[in-house]
Fold this sequence. Notes:
The protein has one helix and 14 strands; from the N terminus they run H-E-E-E-E-E-E-E-E-E-E-E-E-E-E. The chain is elongated. Strands 1, 2, 3, 4, 7, 8, 9, 11, 12, 13 and 14 form an eleven-stranded antiparallel β-sheet that branches. A three-stranded mixed β-sheet has the order 6-5-10, with no helix packed on it. It is mainly beta.
Amino acid sequence: MLQKLSFTxxxxxxxxxxxxxxxxDVQKLHYxxxxxxxxxxxxxxxxxxxxxxxxxxxxSYSQFDHYFxxxxxxxxSLDYPVSPxxxxxxxxxxxxxxxxxxxxxxxxxxxxxxNNDVSANNNYNLKIDYMExxxxxxxxxxNPSSDKxxxxxGGIAPAVRVGSAARYVYYPEDVTVTTVDETKVKQYGLxxxxxxxxHPILGMQFGPNRDxxxxxxxxxxxxxxxxxxNNSSPYYNTQMWxxxxxxxxxGLFPGVR
Length: 257
């Protein structure tokens, strides 16, 4: 289903680009710069956290719960109206993704900076970061004459992995009272993540209409169309969801009106 939708959106983007190429007007071209926060998670447990992994039931990994990874999204793009309601956009984005696992540590008292007791958690953070090329179709739900725009968009983002690692943040077992910032860190390689992926995108943007310069709010959801890992083992068979929330600036190029 997602594959068909992605190819349909990509074909629509190609057609819209062909149409605008025949009547391109640089005065209608806008730039977008935005940054936000990603929350991503795996659709299946991976590696030693997979319940089918040999020895999982008696291991310390069975105490960890499936969690998400929080990371950054930075995007620059250009958009162009094909008609008063429809537009296309293409950009370049850095998108941090991955997943996580955590477990509460019993028998340790953690004091925060205000001397309050808080729960202690050990965390595995599996990070997979990408550079993406989002190709989007846009539709404005508001009247073109309105000062504001409410844009729904969809498309696909070819993505190349630029970094990956597994990070274990934990509290030492030999302490009973400690502070939040007294954790230890171990870093591991995560070299079996696929170098290339395709991420279908669905999102919405609320901000200025097409002839305005102003801030906007952006909300989007993405999915990894291809497997996240290239390992043939069934313990690494997973896709990935990502939800993003961000703020940005949309404007005309200086001197162009």
